[in-house]
Amino acid sequence: MKTFNYTARALEGGGEVTGVAEANTREEALRQLRDNGLIVERITEVGDSKRDLDLRLGGGKTKEKELSITCNQFAILLKAGLPITRTLELIANQTDDKTLAQVLKNAADDVAAGYSLSDSLQKNGDGLPTTFIESVRAGEESGSLETVFRRLSRYYETTSRTKAKVKSAMIYPTFVMVIAVVVVAIIMIFAVPVFSSTFESMGQELPAITQFVVASSDFWVHWWWLVAILIAAAVIGVKLGKKNDGFHLWWSKLGIMVPVLGRINLMSAASEYSGTMSVMMSAGLPIVRAVGVTARSMTNYYMGQSLENTMSGLEAGKTLATCLRAEDTLPELAIEMTAVGEQTGALENTMEVISEYYDNEVETSTGRAMSILEPMIIVVLAVIVFVLLLSVYLPLFGMYGSIQ
């Protein structure tokens, strides 16, 4: 049993109500509160922020490619008529992911003991995405488990392929930057001190640019450990700060607002929103529940919270597009297409189209960003090399001139 803190408004009178609810899942807690005549505005699991942090840092999270293969195997074996317990055992023996294999084996034991498949997976698989668990739950409730697994397989395959393309586009500039940092560090720590001692022994006044390079070298030689500590402290500080809801929201919003990369993050969030909503609705989830699951599965915390804020409006009878427009965080095209899907009664298909569009946008935006970043890296490296060479050769020219 889990504990949830909630903020809601009473249907009668509209007064704000805060309290604690106990339930096995967030959806069950929401149903309990709605049955009690409350419109939930915000609900969070006690201790949930730490769990969300662990998932975002990759703590045992199953990769999309592995999930795609697993879902496809589920669909094939279920179509062949195998019972759930035997299906879980067979897939567990075939998967290369040891953590996932153990989750499936434990789930098989729980299913044999009388648990549902979704409850068994939720109980044992902390690294499994919310979309996976809730889709399976909806498939069990509607009797369309095989169809749900096929849809999930395509969804995770597409997600994996998009992420792979983005990573591939970033390999070259990342490699160049790492090599550049290493080379400059070696020059500053080992080469410059040698030249510095040589110039000092000659008693010649050094040009300003040479003095700057020598001073920088002295700083890195003597204080590199302080820089390392400051960087480590900043990284740890951000990770710990994400446990605070206010800081986590600010940090996630910053990721959307930064130049160039912010657009990629926004396009990626729109793709996540539409793709996950398409899967949830194809699994048979009602719109409010689908939005709730999608909000919790968003990579960007700020975008997830913004989407979760729409749930109170949906429960009050407003359309999803109206609620999204009030939040004004997703791209305008995604909101307009959502409105079209609601008006035509084809929201599921519309979401799939939006997802495909923004998958392509993520790939295109990443390619553009890398095409801008690569020449910038080359220019920066050229400037650094020029400054280093100038700082070495200017004293030599001065020495040569004095000899003449």
Number of strands: 3
Low-confidence stretches: 48-59
Q: What's the total helix number?
A: 17
- The helicity comes to over 70%
| Straight-line N-to-C gap | 88 Å
Order of helices and strands: EEHEHHHHHHHHHHHHHHHH
What is the topology, as strand order, of the major beta sheet? 2-1-3
Query: Averaging pLDDT over every residue, what do you get?
Result: 82
Beta-strand content estimate: 5-15%
Short description:
By secondary structure, this protein is mostly helical. 77% of the residues lie in helices and 6% in strands.
Topology:
Elements: E1 2-10, E2 16-23, H1 26-35, E3 38-45, H2 48-56, H3 64-79, H4 84-94, H5 98-112, H6 117-124, H7 130-142, H8 145-201, H9 208-241, H10 245-257, H11 261-282, H12 287-297, H13 301-308, H14 311-315, H15 320-327, H16 332-344, H17 347-403
Antiparallel strand pairs: 1-2, 1-3
Mind explaining what this structure looks like?
The protein is mainly alpha-helical. It is 77% helix and 6% strand. The chain is built from 17 helices and three strands. The chain has helices spanning 26-35, 48-56, 64-79, 84-94, 98-112, 117-124, 130-142, 145-201, 208-241, 245-257, 261-282, 287-297, 301-308, 311-315, 320-327, 332-344, 347-403; strands at residues 2-10, 16-23, 38-45. Strands 2-1-3 form a three-stranded antiparallel sheet. The protein is elongated and about 90 Å long. The termini are far apart. The model is unreliable at 48-59 (pLDDT under 50).
